[in-house]
Amino acid sequence: MKRKRNLYHLWFCFAMLLFLAVPFKVKAETATTPVSISVQYGQTEARTILNMINEMRTSSTDAWYWKQDDTTKTYCTNLQPLQYDYDLEKTAMQRAAEIAIIYSHTRPNNKDTFSAFYENSVYYTYAGENIAAGYGTADSVNDGWREDNELYAGQGHRRNMLNSKFNCVGIGHVYYNGFHYWVENFAYRDKVNTTPVSADNTETTLTIPVATSKISNFNITFDKDEYSLKTGESTSISVSDPTISVFGHWGSRFVFVTDTPDLTIADSTVATLSGTITGISEGDTTISASLYGLTAHQTAAVKVHNCENHWDDGKITTTPTCTKTGVKQYTCTICSETKTEEIAALGHDYSSDWTIDTAAACETVGSKSHHCTRCDSKIDVTEIPASGHSWNDGSITTEPTCTDEGVKTFTCNSCGKTRTEEVAALGHNYSSDWTIDTAAACETVGSKSHHCTRCDSKIDVTEIPASGHSWNDGAITTEPTCTDEGVKTFTCNACGKTRTEAVAALGHNYSSDWTIDTAAACETVGSKSHHCTRCDSKKDITEIPASGKHTWNNGVITKPATIAEEGVKTYTCTVCGVTRTETIAKLPMPTVTPVPTATPTPAITSAPTVTPTPSVSVGTKITDKKTGNIYKVTSSRSSSQTVAFIGNKVKTSVTIPTTIKIKGATYKVTEISTNAFKNNRKLKKVVIGQNIVRIGKNAFYGCKKLTSITIKSSRLTLKNIGKNAFKNTSPKATVKVPKKQKVLYNQILKKRGLNKKAKVK
What we know:
Strand 23 (355-358) and strand 24 (366-371) form a beta hairpin. The strands form 14 sheets. Strands 1, 2, 5, 6, 7, 8 and 9 form a 7-stranded mixed beta sheet that branches. Strands 41, 42, 43, 45, 46 and 48 form a 6-stranded mixed beta sheet that branches. Among the domains are: 11-211, CATH 3.40.33.10; 215-304, Immunoglobulin-like (Sandwich); 309-343, no CATH class; 515-544, no CATH class; 621-760, Ribonuclease Inhibitor (Leucine-rich repeat, LRR (right-handed beta-alpha superhelix), Alpha-Beta Horseshoe). By secondary structure, the protein is mainly beta. The two termini are 59 Å apart. The chain is flat.
């Protein structure tokens, strides 16, 4: 069973050995077992770390480490970039696969770290090694090895990367069982192998010697818990996921191996095992697996049966007939194997009663016979004489009309055959009452006549005179405006015809109150006028003077000063958003303490393991379980620790705070990410903290229930609010903003999609 592990707690190890042509002390050989594993090499990404190392080595600001007093920095000047050594890369790749089994500078075979160098004919004067596990990218593992925020005791990896005695490096990276493993091998070599080879990014199976004493707990998965078969039958068997426990393994609980285990059957008189399982005799036994001299805890049961001992009572699957035999089927109660037996035919059984095969009709003879009670066979077929027709009293099937004859049809009661007779026509019967054929209308005449009561015939057709229109009181169909006439429409009560009359225009009605058409700003004039209460007309247009001065905020450092360059501080007008800048003086040159030259020790020391304090990498997502807020780290530098708010899909009311705590450190919440609340159907209220300087594109797009927005930040500008950030939010929304920012924020929020009906207070 696979296990997941929390990756916030990642391990580092550090080692640096110096060598001056002194041979290794030969240790007693450790008993080893060859273990095969499959790893995915990632050398394309691993090689990118070379530039990261050399950028630090050649940087005037990054090439430093703490002295042992933890108060004074040692700056490493004039360091040369490291060359990439493709021989060292081989050892680093080998070591990366080895630490995937046992995470240590001591190799799985109990040999010293640098014995791998000599096995690959890599000779050196000085050498060092950095290892790491759990980091998913080259950037993140390099940040961990840099140890920017550690004191002297925690900067062993950093000192390796800045060591002036090294002139080359090789880097290895493997992905194994869900985790990434990284190795940096440093050295000073007289001859550096810089001949390029293709980056190895293949999935590769390696056989690694592992100290036998460190291997235990072999486990395996059978494809079935139980194999059931009958005597003489064979069935396939397969196993998967062979794992072992290895002392010192990091990552998951078990080491997954690719070696094939040996399978053994306990009782070969019941079944045999040779690629497949074959049943020999009825009984039960088990199959076990072994690998590396260890027997797996898991076994599989084998059950063999003989069907002859387990037939059921059987059932008839084909019923016998008078002329054909039947079939009875028996089923094995264990494996459902079947066998059949024949049932004899029954023979005919003729009834003594007559069966009418064809009934006699009025004009045709019939027949009768004696039938078999089980099938369609019959004997003694005999004729039945015809009976003749029996007619009923008849019925009218075609009614006679004023001008046409009708039809009466007679039917035989026995066979349904028919015959017909004629019925005489009726003649017309005209009513004495008048019928209105066409009603008279306001402008057209009508007509009336005497109709036949049975058909459409009519006589005495007479004209009815037109009636004339009857107009109603009329209704306003087009309202008059200040400048245009209206229309009044009159409708006839009888026919619905209409006529119209003009209604006089109303004329303008100007308000005595002033309306602000364009608000005055710091540097631009505004305007006001008297508006008509009924339309958009206005008069008395008057200029509103500009205020003439800006209201500057406390300013933000937009470019920090360095030793080499001056910095910049930017001030923003809280009313109109205009900016101005001031220059910040260069930083003073730090005092550089020279690096003492170490005297090489002609011996090989063991590689210590260092576990650093966990740090939070840029891009890490943090969830506040209490509020449901989700953040992403945007900067983890001690001088500028910031996060972005990226969403909360749970709460209807969300507060975006000024700061949050991560592992005891205070991080400023400075932005709301793109699409943070896009199409959120729950959000009704949001409070935006005072450190927010950026709101991303579509941040609140489609939040149709969002009616309450409080903005505490005074640092937002049109440039720093993304497109459609507030589009399709509620027209009933109320936005509370800092008092001095009301005019500016009203403009920029509505330019970024805030509904024009929303109120900004």
